[in-house]
């Protein structure tokens, strides 16, 4: 909080696409500066049994639910 006033910013980004994450991070740095708290509210659930999922769905699930935390 700056001077007792809390500020909240929201951005929409496809965490499954690395370049989308990087470009949004640059936008945030330009518009906001350093970030004190980031809440990543993303996840993918297919509702299918693993052996019934197409490869693309498995890959998307792993990228969003696991890999995106490291970008």
Automatic annotation (TrEMBL):
Checking Pfam families in the record gives: adh_short (PF00106)
Task: Kindly give the InterPro entries that the UniProt entry links to this protein.
Answer: NAD(P)-bd_dom_sf (IPR036291), SDR_fam (IPR002347)
Top-rank lineage group of the source organism? Eukaryota
**Signal peptide positions on this chain:** none
Q: What is this protein called?
A: Short-chain dehydrogenase
According to its UniProt entry, this protein's organism is: Cirrhinus mrigala
Q: What is the lineage of its organism?
A: Eukaryota, Metazoa, Chordata, Craniata, Vertebrata
């Amino acid at each position: 909080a700056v001077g007792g006033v809390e500020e909240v910013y929201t951005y929409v980004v496809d965490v499954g696409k690395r370049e989308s994450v990087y470009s949004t991070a640059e936008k945030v740095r330009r518009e906001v500066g350093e970030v004190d708290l980031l809440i990543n509210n993303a996840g993918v659930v297919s509702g299918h049994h693993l052996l019934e999922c197409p490869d693309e769905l498995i890959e998307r699930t792993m990228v969003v639910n696991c890999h995106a935390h490291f970008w």
